[in-house]
Amino acid sequence: MPQAIVSVKPFDSVFLQPWIQTALAEHDPRLGDRLIPPVPTQDLSQPELSSKVLSNIRHFVKVTRFFDVDHYTVYASIRDSKAQLLS
């Protein structure tokens, strides 16, 4: 039986995601503030209901794998509708 070669989708790699390509092209040192907006002080009691968080297209993520917890720092990979990131 011949081997089947499965084609790879162009966006399988996290580095090929469109928003990462745009971010790298702009090379903005304050990029994190645009991708994940800071939560206003008055919304800190319930950040999941903050209008800034809810209006951001990247606010829902799924933890795909936990790697380690060290000194209150969690190492895991997360996935949203656009990318998979190691955090």
TrEMBL record:
One Pfam entry name: TPP1
Location of the protein in the cell: Chromosome, Telomere; Nucleus
Limits of the Shelterin complex subunit TPP1/Est3 domain: 16-86
Keywords tagged on the record: Chromosome, Nucleus, Telomere
Any one GO CC term of the record: telomerase holoenzyme complex
Gene3D superfamilies, A to Z: 2.40.50.960
GO molecular function: telomeric DNA binding
Any one of the GO BP annotations: telomere maintenance via telomerase
Family: Belongs to the EST3 family.
Task of the protein: Component of the telomerase complex involved in telomere replication. Stimulates RNA/DNA heteroduplex unwinding which favors the telomere replication by the telomerase.
Protein's recorded name: Telomere replication protein EST3
Lineage: Eukaryota, Fungi, Dikarya, Ascomycota, Saccharomycotina
